[in-house]
């Protein structure tokens, strides 16, 4: 990798999968390295460079196996080259990998600008419940301060979510004041053939029994070990992520769904049909929440997805089938896809 620009010569050891290089004298170190397909591990006069192919391979492996660590990847490289484990390369790889992700983000940003897709709410990403974060109180050593912020606008902040933390209690209070046995929204099971429950209250209790996330909020605890227990996401019918937020020190609380509904109403407006595995119970909370009047005005509806309906009472299944006639509605649903790219640290 020789260059013709003016500057001082350098000597560097380049790490690749099945080979290693000692490039000839060149100039403008990192420029020459990038032109040759490598990224230096230091901003000025690096002594080690790692190929983009090595970074991209780790990125793709890490997407499908989040538990694959930088250390394991470096050990595999050492095995490929039949050399002793190179401990210092772990930190060098980790730091430079973050730079590599920043480069990819910069490229994506430029492409979106050219395609005029750089306006808010163009969204696509993955995530699932394996994205747990162990609380620093349970780990040895000093916690590393992470001041990085999300680069996308579909992440809801904890403050946005906590705005709805008291809505469940308020919804129950509102339902009680109206003289209902439970929150409004119970299914009218009269005339539904084959129904195996005798009342709306009993129908609702069946859903609560079969779905933990439909139960009381007090039951939705999480081990103290985890500061973040997973993510709550909303997808469009094409499988694209629209909105997501971290589930912090809890299970699947109603506040996460309410915060997402609030964002959906802000961005997409009227006539939204939301498929949610506990849509029957959630719709009752939504109706008596601060979002209730707006959701009613915008004609937002919640249904139980066909994949989950077999575990609900027959009234919910009957109502879901009726909703197949709602062609004008845009459909959204909550899901649990796979893992996104995230910067790493050693």
Question: How would you describe this protein?
Answer:
The chain is an alpha/beta fold and 346 residues long. It folds into 2 domains: 13-114, no CATH class; 158-335, no CATH class. Helices cover 36% and strands 13% of the residues. The strands form 2 sheets. Strands 5, 6, 7, 8, 9 and 10 form a 6-stranded mixed sheet that branches. Helix 6 (167-177) packs across helix 9 (279-287). The protein is elongated. It starts with 12 loop residues before the first strand and ends in an 11-residue tail after the last strand. Mean pLDDT is 71; it is low at 1-7, 122-127, 181-204, 324-340 and 342-346. Pfam families: KDZ. InterPro entries: KDZ (IPR040521).
**How does the major sheet shape up?**
6 strands, mixed
Q: Tally the structural domains.
A: 2
Overall mean pLDDT score? 71
User: Could you tell me the number of beta strands?
Assistant: 10
Q: In angstroms, what is the radius of gyration?
A: 26 Å
User: How many DSSP H or I helices?
Assistant: 11
Poorly predicted ranges: 1-7, 122-127, 181-204, 324-340, 342-346
The helix-strand sequence is EEHEEHHHEHHHEEHEHHEHE
Regarding quaternary structure, what we see is single chain
**How much helix, percentage-wise, in residues?**
25-40%
Q: What is the overall silhouette?
A: elongated
Q: Termini distance?
A: 29 Å
Q: In terms of structural class, how would the helical and strand content be classed?
A: alpha/beta
Strand content: 5-15%
InterPro entries: KDZ (IPR040521)
Pfam family, one: KDZ
């Amino acid at each position: 990798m020789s260059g013709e620009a003016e500057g001082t010569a350098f000597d560097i050891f380049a790490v690749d999968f099945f080979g290693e290089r000692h490039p000839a004298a060149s100039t403008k170190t990192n420029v020459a390295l990038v032109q040759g397909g490598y990224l230096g591990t230091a901003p000025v006069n690096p002594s080690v460079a790692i190929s983009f192919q090595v970074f991209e391979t780790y990125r793709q492996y890490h997407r499908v196996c989040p538990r694959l660590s930088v250390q394991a990847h470096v050990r595999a490289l050492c095995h490929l080259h039949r050399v002793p484990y190179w401990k210092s390369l772990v930190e060098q790889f980790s730091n430079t990998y973050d730079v590599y992700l920043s480069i990819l983000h910069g490229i994506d940003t430029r492409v979106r600008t050219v395609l005029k897709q750089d306006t808010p709410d163009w969204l696509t990403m993955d995530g699932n419940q394996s994205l747990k974060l162990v609380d620093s109180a349970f780990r040895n050593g000093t916690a590393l301060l992470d001041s990085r912020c999300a680069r996308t606008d579909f992440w809801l902040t904890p403050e946005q979510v906590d705005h709805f933390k008291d809505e469940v209690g308020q919804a129950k209070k509102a339902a009680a004041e109206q003289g209902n046995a439970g929150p409004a929204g119970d299914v009218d099971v009269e005339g539904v053939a084959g129904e195996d429950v005798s009342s709306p209250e009993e129908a609702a209790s069946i859903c609560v029994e079969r779905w933990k996330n439909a139960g009381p909020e007090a039951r939705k605890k999480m081990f103290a070990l985890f500061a973040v227990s997973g993510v709550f996401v909303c997808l469009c019918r094409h499988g694209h992520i629209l909105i997501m937020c971290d589930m912090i020190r809890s299970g699947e609380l109603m506040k996460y769904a309410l915060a997402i509904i609030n964002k959906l109403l802000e961005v997409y407006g009227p006539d939204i049909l939301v498929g949610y595995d506990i849509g029957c119970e959630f719709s009752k909370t939504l109706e008596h929440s601060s979002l209730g009047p707006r959701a009613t005005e915008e004609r937002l509806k919640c249904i139980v997805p066909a994949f989950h309906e077999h575990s609900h009472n027959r009234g919910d299944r009957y109502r879901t089938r009726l909703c197949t006639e709602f062609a004008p509605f845009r459909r959204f649903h909550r899901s649990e896809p796979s893992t996104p790219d995230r910067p790493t640290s050693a």
